[in-house]
Design brief:
Strand content: 15-25%
Number of domains: 3
Number of helices: 15
Structural class: alpha+beta
Low-confidence stretches: 113-174
Mean pLDDT: 79
Number of strands: 16
Radius of gyration: 25 Å
Length: 432
Amino acid sequence: MTGAGDTFRECVERLMQSRTFRNAPSSRRLLRYLADHSLAGDADQLKEYTIGVDAFGKPPDYDPRLDSTVRIQIGRLRLKLSEFYREEGTEDPLVVGLPKGRFSLICEPRPAALTAPEPSAAETEPGWDAAMELSRHRWRTVALVLAGTCLILIAALAFSYSRMRGADRSPTGADEWPPELAELWAPFVNTGRPLIVAVGNPLFLQFENKLLYRDPAVDKLEDLLKSPSLIAVRKALGVQQSQPVHYYAAVGDVTSAFILGRRLGLRQPNISIVRSSQLQWQQLASANVLLLGPPRFFDDKLTSLPAPLEIAETPEGFRVVHPRPGESPVYKYRDPPGFFVEDGEARVLITRSAGPVGDTDVLTFASNSTFGRAGALHAFTDAGFAHTLVAQMRDASGHIPRYFQVLLNVKFKGGVPTETSYLLYRELRRRN
């Protein structure tokens, strides 16, 4: 759709003003919603839950597995598109379609098959898609997507390989977890619930010439498009058209996924890995979730969970809401500053909180340094460090709280974590 945004908008507006859609408010609403996200380039990252809440006003506890509204409306939209191009739009040279398995609308030249006078009986079923004929260029798109997602796939393969290697080891003897390590990970292993590992995948813009642009300080498309540095890059390259992509993961998070697969594989049989941009509220409500990435990737979700945070993200660094004697009110994200520093140290905030409805658990490793995140997760799965950490967190009863935040300092050299130390800890309490 790159380079044809105005044409696409004109086609959508023609649909919106047509007789076919005029008396179908639900289909009009869904068409407009998917068109806006298709133009933004993130439609294929949408989930049923998101569409239900945003487009159809479903409540936060909406469960797509129990309520098929979105699936029904998607089928009706495909029928309406088919109806329009069979009746009002018979002479239209371009056709807007919604391919099966996707939420991104396409706009391509009318195929010869659409000039047939009447559809077959099978084509009038809700599953039929007028755009099925429009896929002659789709293999090229699939190839680009597969190439772009290589780092996420590497993370998933490393994750699976670690678990298979772990399955070959006996779960007895030296492989048994000491009590402190088991206590830190208790809500996430052998619980009967699935565990989802969400790996941060930052926002890039891909230009017409396939070059990629990334501003590490910006992760919202609307902010990136207004960035002076992006305007300067476009001018220097002589290109204007671009589309957002979320294909890549940081090397430290790939390393962390490998560590998790190796350490948790024997104790949690149901683990999956997703991109952070695809993580939905429904997943947080139905599964235990572990988040790896910069704080801003997950801040909107963490601040909406039942336990108010005692350590929060600010532009200056991690802010301690109620600092105690000897504690700094703000801990800088990293020293020295900069997004591509391989020698230095970084602060990492580990948060264990309740899921949105209280039946699940969420664990985050948040840092603006990919090497810091990898070092903190390695320490959090290390028996020696777990012994030290749990000793700092035990209460008078001898147990650690269910929900907490821990701030660590990780030093790294050449991108390799070399030392992790404890800074402070806070208990979190759920709202009544």
